[in-house]
Design brief:
314 residues, alpha+beta, Porin, 6 helices, 12 strands, 23% helix
Length: 314
C-alpha cells in the first residue's frame, strides 16, 4: 500500500495537486497528459511564429536543481510539433521523425519560453514537415533545435484535437482521488511514490526513467505508464528524447553535461517498457560522444541517437 506524504496543511503536496489537475484536463481533447502536467501554455499560435512557455519548479527539476531531461524533451517536442500544426490547415496526425537539439548549459530560471517556426516541407514529398525552435529562460538561450515530422491522416473516427494548453492565470479544477479511473489511479499512485522517493527528485521518479551505469556504458528502463503517453497511447516523443539523454549521461562519470543530441525515431514506443543502452564512442578531456539505442522489450528499435557531452570546467 502506498502512503500519502505527510502534509500538515491538510492540502495535498503541490506535485500531487498538479497531477490531479492534469488528470482532470486530460479528460478533454487538447494536449496529452505530459503537456498538462508541465502546464505548457500556448501563448501565440501563428504560421510565422508559435510562442509557448512553462513554469519551472520542483516538479521538473533534478536533485541538483537543473531542468529534468525528460521535461525539457517534452517541451521541445511539443513546441516543434505545434509550430507545424499552426502552419498546416488540414486535420492531421504528426509522427516525429528526427529531432536535433543543441544545449548551451545556461541555468534555467523561473519560466521557460519557446519560439518555434515552421520551415516548410521536404522538396520531394508533401508528407514531411520541418520546424525549428529556440528555447530561452529570461535573456539566456537554453537550447536550439529542429525537427522533422511525418504528416499523417487522422485515424478513422478521430477528430482534430484543438491546441489548448494551460493558461498561467487559471490552474483550473482538479479531480478527487475517489473519482479517478483505473488508469488515472495508476498515475496518482506513481505520483505518491515519487513524492516519497528519497534517492531521486520527483520528476525523475514520476516519469520513471531508471538508469544503470555499466562497464561499457549504461542501460535504462522506462515503464510504459499513462503519464508518459500521448493521445495515441504511445510514449510521447519528448519523453523518449529525455530517456536517451539520461542514458547517455549515465554512461559517463559525474561532471559531464549534455551538449547535443541527434535522434532518429524508428517506431512507436509501445509495450510494457522501453529499454535503453548507451555506448561511449569517445571520451576525451573536455568532450565525449555516445550512441544511444532505445528498444521495446520485444527487441524492436524505437530510437537511435548520437550525443555529445562536455566536461565541467576543471
Amino acid at each position: 500500500m502506498t502512503r500519502s506524504p505527510k502534509n500538515t496543511t491538510g492540502s495535498p503536496p503541490p506535485q500531487i495537486a498538479r497531477v490531479l489537475n492534469a488528470l482532470h484536463r486530460n479528460r478533454t481533447p487538447g494536449f496529452h497528459f505530459p503537456g498538462y502536467f508541465l502546464r505548457v501554455s500556448c501563448d501565440q499560435l501563428d504560421p510565422d511564429e508559435t510562442l509557448m512557455s512553462m513554469d519551472v519548479g520542483t516538479h521538473c527539476l533534478t536533485r541538483e536543481g537543473t531542468l529534468d531531461a525528460v521535461s525539457l524533451g517534452v517541451f521541445t517536442d511539443m513546441a516543434l510539433a505545434i509550430a507545424v500544426r499552426a502552419a498546416i490547415p488540414q486535420p492531421c496526425r504528426l509522427a516525429t521523425v528526427t529531432i536535433q537539439l543543441q544545449l548551451t548549459g545556461h541555468a534555467v530560471g523561473g519560466r521557460l519560453a519557446a519560439r518555434a517556426r515552421y520551415r516548410g516541407g521536404h522538396a520531394t514529398t508533401a508528407h514531411q514537415a520541418i520546424s525549428e525552435v529556440d528555447i530561452v529562460s529570461g535573456d539566456a538561450l537554453i537550447a536550439r533545435g529542429q525537427a522533422s515530422f511525418m504528416v499523417l491522416p487522422l485515424p478513422e473516427g478521430r477528430t482534430v484535437l484543438p491546441v489548448r494548453g494551460w493558461q498561467p492565470d487559471d490552474a483550473g479544477p482538479t479531480l478527487s482521488p475517489e473519482a479517478l479511473s483505473d488508469g488515472e489511479r495508476q498515475v496518482y499512485r506513481d505520483a505518491l511514490r515519487a513524492c516519497a522517493e528519497r534517492t531521486a527528485a520527483f520528476a525523475s521518479a514520476f516519469w520513471g526513467v531508471r538508469t544503470r551505469p555499466g562497464r561499457s556504458g549504461a542501460t535504462s528502463r522506462l515503464p510504459v505508464t499513462p503519464q508518459v503517453a500521448n493521445r495515441m497511447g504511445h510514449v510521447q516523443g519528448g519523453i523518449l528524447l529525455g530517456q536517451a539523454m539520461d542514458t547517455a549521461l549515465a554512461a559517463l562519470p559525474s561532471g559531464w553535461a549534455m551538449s547535443s543530441i541527434s535522434a532518429c525515431y524508428l517506431s512507436p514506443g509501445q509495450g510494457s517498457a522501453i529499454l535503453g543502452r548507451a555506448r561511449p564512442l569517445h571520451t576525451g578531456r573536455s568532450t565525449a560522444a555516445s550512441s544511444v539505442r532505445l528498444r521495446r522489450r520485444d527487441g524492436i528499435p524505437v530510437l537511435e541517437a548520437q550525443t555529445t557531452l562536455v566536461a565541467a570546467q576543471r
